[in-house]
Amino acid sequence: MRPLARRIASLRVTRASRLSTPSALGLVPALTLLAMLGPVCAGLAWTVLPAFGYLPAAQFSALSLDPLRTLLDWPGLSAATRLSVTTGLLATALSLGIVVLILAGWYGTGAFRLLERLLSPLLSVPHAATAFGFAFLIAPSGWLSRLASPLTGWDRPPDLLIVQDPWGLTLTAGLVAKEVPFLLLMALAALGQTDARRRMRVAQALGYGRISGWLKTVFPAVYAQIRLPVYVVLAYSMSVVDVAMILGPSTPAPLSVQIVHWMGDPDLTRRLTAAAAALLQGALVLAALVLWRGSEAAVARLGIVWIERGSRGHALDPVLRPAGLGLGLLAAFAVLAGLAGLAVWSFAGFWAFPDALPQTFDMRSWSRHLPGILSASVTTALIAGFATALALILVLGCLESEYRSGRSLNRRGLWLIYLPLLVPQTAFLPGLQTLLLSLGADRAIWAVVLAHLVFVLPYVFLSLGDPWRAWDRRNGTVAAALGTSPWGVLWRVRLPMLLRPILTTAAVAFAVSVGQYLPTLLVGGGRVPTLTTEAVALASGGDRRAIGVYGVAQTLAVLGPFILALALPALVYRNRRGLHG
Amino acid sequence: MAEALILHDIRITRGGAPLLRIDHSIAPGAVLTVMGPSGVGKSTLLSYVAGTLAPEFEASGMVCLGSTDITALPPARRRIGILFQDDLLFPHLSVGANLAFGLRAGGSVAFRRDRIAMALADIELEGYGDRDPATLSGGQKARVALMRMLLSEPRALLLDEAFSGLDVSLRRQIRTLVFDRARKMALPVLMVTHDPEDAAAAGGAVEHLTAVGQGL
After folding, report:
1. Would the pTM count as exceeding 0.80?
2. Domain finish residue from A292, A327, A362
């Protein structure tokens, strides 16, 4: 074809497609990016400046290295730093290892489906509730030692420092129990995009054992897909605050917790120290990510050597398969029994030590805390509702604009989506609070909603993207051929057909918002009490009944929307078999 | 009233590489069958005519209904009906609502209800209005999909392997039904298929697409 004719032809195609793409929709991706990355960038900037002594809102306007010096003089620094690094690396490696063992040993079996069913709902339970439950389980006066007392003869709680141990092992274990469901679900989604079954059939036909065959043929493809989620787990585990306040050591506390303490200090120079520490936290996470990335290459090289040796690895299966199943069940059990423990404590009357159950059950704790629960629930639901609605509108707008323009998300776009989850919260939220403080907008509920939006948006993208793109485009072609406009196709065909994934996504978004601790605390200036901030605030007091009540309320606040998300489509489409895949 | 579907010197390329070219006029009530091996761009041609060409393709030429150039119109305003291999009945709507979705807007509620009831009777599915489309048989679904398309009063008809999903006896029956209706309504039909029997049943002109070489 002649170049000119081709150019004219392509012009015509552009013109025709532009007719159907209103410009307002084209702005949504930019707006979404701004909502997701704007607060992160602004927060980082306002972390860097105070870290070097610049905080005009508090009359510090001379650049200096004093904040960094103060931080370096803090005696707890090396222990806090070490805790952050070891907890993060260990929790990530263990979670990934358990998920790999479960998938390698059991994918496609009945036991796997059982594990999947046990673990998936746990994903949405707020971290704080899980951590409290876990603490109730393993504390010296917890359920496990009560159950063991007939064997050990304990008649009072053993004098052991289990929870808040100085090495952060309990903290690590608590994080693992919570991250295994997350990585498992991410890996399952990734497995759907690899031809795992055929790879395994080939490997087994060549005489490979189940685990070694899976590790050698399927794992590389799966890991390439879950690399970003693994990084998220690493960044999160290194910088988590709420779980660390509950399960981590306190003297010294992990770096992230110390940052929050400094941020809350009435002495404003402490904010400068907090900013310097936040900077250090960011650098630590970056260094750990680089280290992890480097280890990936090393593991890959070792893996090649292992593959080339050609060992069939039959000896692995009898050891590693039970280990994987056992660890997976243990993770599920730790969370489930912990939640049961919260519920029992919330209704407990008198409960003496070695007794496995309280002597009496009553509603006293619930009635005592009901006013607080109700007002915190309203705030929680308001914030979560707005954040969910905004996130859904933005993401649906992005996906629809992607669909109409025919350009799909590339790898760089995926990185952008994961970015808010990779930058540690403790690195940019203190800066965001400082910024809002100088704007006089701290303590505002809308600021909290926008801060939650940063963390809700990525999950909405991840949860809705696949079902949205899996929708058969020919439905849209048919509807358009019947005379339906692009907006008509969206409202009358696509959204109704995708009602179920949209509602599930809304429930995920709601759960993410309900579970947020640090953004609520810092951006709300401590004046926006939600179920999660109230629950974590109880951690130091040790009132188990109150903690039980708030933990149960937190769990119900996320489970409720999920039940609705399952029930509503089943009800609305009860006579529509084609929508019950 | 009825007009020809004119494919005027259409050339489709992908990233500059030629994919296909066609120049043909389909008279009202006539069928043009386009055949060729898979991957040759048959469905791409249909998506160009329907107005839903993916952005990785470039196209030149004109699509006209009679003397009207519809090349630049958005799909929703072209009034070109399309049937795919799958029925693609909207799973969230009842059979009747699917037909109502197709029926051109306008008219009173009672008129539209009667029209749907008549349409159902027309395809021997009286009283099926409230049924879930997922509970219909393959032949019933195909008939509803055809009727939904016809109710939108299209001016031309595209068939994208429309009969490939049906088993042999059903296939003959639905094919006859579709061609009869198209002839009765004097619709020009552009059919893409890999089955010579479809082409024979259509009885019209047959265009064989072959992979276009670099020489063009």
Report:
1. yes
2. A362
DSSP string, A467-532: HHHHS-HHHHHHHHHTT--HHHIIIIIIHHHTHHHHHHHHHHHHHHHHH--HHHHHHTTT-S--HH
Is B60 close to A9, i.e. CB distance below 8 A? yes
* A349 plus A388 within the same structural domain: no
A 89-128 → B contacts, CB under 8 A:
none
Q: Are residues A479 and A567 in the same domain?
A: yes
CATH number (domain holding residue A220): 1.10.3720.10
Question: Per the structure, how many domains does chain A have?
Answer: 2
Residue A573: its pLDDT value, please? 92
User: Cβ contacts (< 8 Å) between B158 and chain A: which residues?
Assistant: 481
Query: pLDDT for B15-58, tens place per residue?
Result: 888 888 999 999 999 999 999 887 788 889 999 999 999 888 99
Domain limits for position A512 = 363-405+441-573
Q: What is the pLDDT of residue A439?
A: 83
Query: How many beta-carbon pairs under 8 angstroms link A with B?
Result: 126
Regions of chain A short of the pLDDT cut 50? 1-21
A120-176 pLDDT, tens digit per residue, is 888 889 999 999 999 999 998 899 989 888 888 888 888 877 888 889 999 999 999
Residue of A nearest to B101 (CA): A482
ipTM above 0.95, yes or no: no
Give the whole-angstrom CA distance, residue A264 versus residue A241.
14
Kindly report the backbone phi and psi dihedral angles of residue B119, in degrees, each rounded to the nearest multiple of 5, phi listed first.
Answer: -60, -40
